[in-house]
Specification:
Rossmann fold, seven-stranded mixed sheet, 10 helices, binds S-adenosylmethionine
């Protein structure tokens, strides 16, 4: 199964020998590619809707791979059982809004030393990072992918301690800031322009711009 750069980057974070759950699998491409490559101990594709899950089943059968499927809202109960038992589990949630991701992560148990979250929220990335930091996760790895003029942020996290984030870390990611890769600069410039445009819009509507002022100030320190 050929993956685009975004899903290829997500799959690179899957740990060999872990049980991989692709939550919100839609077409199932990521789960099928994982099963084909034999990276994971097991692969499960799940979705809240039966139409995408049926499409994923058909795609898996065409590709001749065997994987498990679950029709459910959020993280499948089998994943939570494995996490509680201390088994290595990778939970991928890609291509969903940040609020949806935050809602489903509240099901993750406190004891989860062997869990890796691999997240690609398509909105509210700073809120997802804040939620993770406030819930006792640390940032394992992060990446910024620029593909077809779009910017994607991958956040991976594991349980282990509470580390409050600065606003710049919420916006750009602790690991991204450490690595200082060129695509992080692209993200920073994009967020800066978006905040400046949002501030102008709010100013002309007579609305408070404190949030935009704070983000612009934080990003200008980096830029
Ligand atoms: C835009 S698609 C993303 C597909 C794939 N993960 C990707 O990144 O290409 C979002 C999928 O998430 C599913 N979804 C949305 N909310 C969900 C939830 N709470 N639990 C499980 N699946 C959900 C939708 O049905 C849809 O198939």
């Amino acid at each position: 199964m050929k993956l685009d750069a975004r899903l290829e980057a997500v799959l690179r974070f899957a740990r060999p020998g872990a049980h991989l759950f692709d939550v919100g699998c839609d077409h199932g491409k990521l789960a099928i590619a994982a099963a084909e490559r034999g990276i994971s101990a097991s692969v499960t594709a799940s979705d809240i809707n039966s139409a995408p899950l049926d499409a994923a089943k058909a795609n898996a059968s065409r590709a001749g791979v065997s994987l498990a499927f679950a029709l459910c809202d959020g993280i499948p109960s089998r994943a939570l059982e494995l996490v509680k038992a201390g088994a290595p589990v990778d939970i991928v949630v890609a291509g969903m809004g940040g609020e949806n991701i935050i809602n489903m992560l509240s099901a993750v148990p406190g004891e989860a030393e062997n869990l890796r979250l691999i997240l690609l929220p398509h909105s509210k990335q700073p809120e997802v990072r804040r939620f993770l930091a406030d819930s006792g996760f640390f940032f394992d790895e992060e990446a910024v992918i620029v593909e077809d003029g779009k910017i994607y942020q991958i956040i991976t996290a594991k349980r282990g301690g509470f580390f409050p984030l600065t606003r710049l870390e919420e916006l750009l990611g602790v690991r991204n800031l450490t690595y200082g890769r060129p695509e992080v600069l692209v993200l920073a410039k994009h967020l800066h322009s978006a905040s400046v445009a949002a501030r102008e819009g709010r100013r002309s509507a007579g609305l408070c711009t404190a949030e935009q002022d704070r983000d612009i100030e934080a990003l200008e320190v980096y830029l």
